[in-house]
Fold each of these.
Amino acid sequence: MTKKLKRMATLALAAALLQPHLAAADERLKAIREKWIPGTPMLTEFLPLYPCHSEELPCGQLPPPAVQKVSFKGALKGDAKRGEKIALDVRWGNCATCHSLPGHKGGTVGPSLEDYASRAPSLEYTYQRIWDTRVFNPDAHMPLFGTNSVLTEDEILDVMVFIHQR
Ligand code: HEC
């Protein structure tokens, strides 16, 4: 076997072995969202859920989740105040670390969203950007808020109302 093949076989084996653990982790992530209040420190009982701190470990070499293409057909309805809180809170949406936002100077990793609404982006576009930005740019340095269950649908909507306001 070539070195590359060996490596691929090892990775496939690692992925297969980890599959049941990942399903269990999914369940536990749901449990987190029932108990943990966003914006507060993570509960210590949940910390063992994040055991992978090295790209050298099999868990650090798992392939990224499949790209999720979503469609948004609804109306822009939500709580702008809550959206602002989610976007500013480093333990919740954390958008401000990379973006300036309406009324707030922020990081410059991503484009400024200060007057995002003036560019009249479609809701469909914004929703997909936040849910899984890889649809537009596979290498974008932005978290996959929907695909990775970082934010709930309601939370994404609140953030959308906040950044779409004029
Ligand atoms: C780690 C940095 C980072 C974080 C955190 C982040 N973003 Fe982004 N965002 C980016 C980058 C980088 C881009 C540009 C992607 C590209 O090049 O395609 C982007 C693009 C966007 C766009 C498209 C902008 C446009 O002009 O079309 C929107 C909307 C957006 N982000 C919203 C958000 C929201 C809302 C949050 C928080 C829930 C967030 N982002 C969190 C880095 C980030």
Note: The mean pLDDT is 88.
Amino acid sequence: MELTTKKLLIEAIKDQQNIFGDFLLENVNESVEESLSKKSAAIKEIDKIEVSLTENLFVENFQKAESLTDLNSQICDCQKCALGKTRTKFVFGVGNPNADAMLIGEAPGRDEDLQGEPFVGRAGKLLNDILRAIKFEREDVYIANILKCRPPNNRDPLPGEMETCIPYLHKQIDLVKPKIILCLGRVAANGLLDKKLSLGQLRESVYDFNGIKVMATYHPAALLRNPNWKRGCWEDVQKFRKLYDDLTAN
Ligand code: SF4
């Protein structure tokens, strides 16, 4: 390295000392190469801190929850969409926090809104019967909805409501870590899988959500309205049980 270039570099490094402090340059007489290498390491560290600060700015507190209880307490007063104003009770989810099987519906109905628990009332009782028919108790699985608040008159959730609320469900899935998910109804399955398919199409395949197997069947409320669909549901849940047994065999 030429003498003038070396002198210039030493001057530059001295200037940088004001920015990066003594940790960068303990001794200006050390070799220029060593100083440059320290400077480069310091810049990389600063870059890392900047990335981490930027990431944290965009991570909401609920995403840092370490348990379902913690998550529930962080989001139960949510008012991110208009349904927060009209709900009676926030409906978080219920069941085994370490369940291998998770059931997902679209939104609370009247009974759920009153009791603060998903799948209660007539539809809930039918769901319990369906679960028992495939040798599950309600307490074995984890049950949640895409929306945590009831849409007025049980209308379908609006796309904006689903988009706003679904990160909570994603976090619940992260915490429960199920091996398999059964979506109850077209809206729940399309919402989770981000698809626009008919329930008939959704029932034909096993899907993947972040490495978790996903199946779809009828919503119990739909089965109450149309008992002819019970046969199809029975076939679906038998497949679901078989896949669950395969996935949990080891
Ligand atoms: S539906 Fe979801 S996003 Fe809307 S207020 Fe309720 S919890 Fe919040």
Note: The pocket of iron/sulfur cluster is lined by residues 78-81, 83-84, 147-149, 161, 164-165 (CB under 6 Å).
Amino acid sequence: MDRTAFTKTPPTVLLLHHNNTLKNRWELVRLNLSSQDLDGHGLPDAWEAEFLNDFASNGSGDRDGDGYSDLEEFLARTYPRDASSYLRLLPPSSPEFTVSWQAATSRTYTLERSGNLKGPFAPVQTGIQGSVPRTDFKDTSAAGPGPFFYRLRVP
Ligand SMILES: [Ca+2]
Ligand SMILES: [Ca+2]
């Protein structure tokens, strides 16, 4: 726990302890929950508080039953209590090798392609910035009759 004097930078969460015995002692305790993971499950405490409303998840649970663990939802920046929100490729919108997915703006993605479903997959593009409500990427390097199989990675 980081015990520091209050600064002009507003803390993420501030706990105030007041010792009334002496009536003159105040202690300010600043916690930075944005990156702390006190239970060590890989989920930042601030994310757990905001998106799960508790700290009970061990990361492997699937709170909304969409098939993706809470940890996977955190990594993809999808909503762990909304079964319609999970990382997935969307049906193709055009025959010109445009790959689309439901994205988060705070994430970058790597799109991979293979001529065989079993792989190996090779990166088509890395560092694709997500956009809402969907991200579209036109694969201009796909040539020939295919088939082409795509896989999405975060990041
Ligand atoms: Ca889930
Ligand atoms: Ca979800």
Note: Residues 98-153 form one domain.
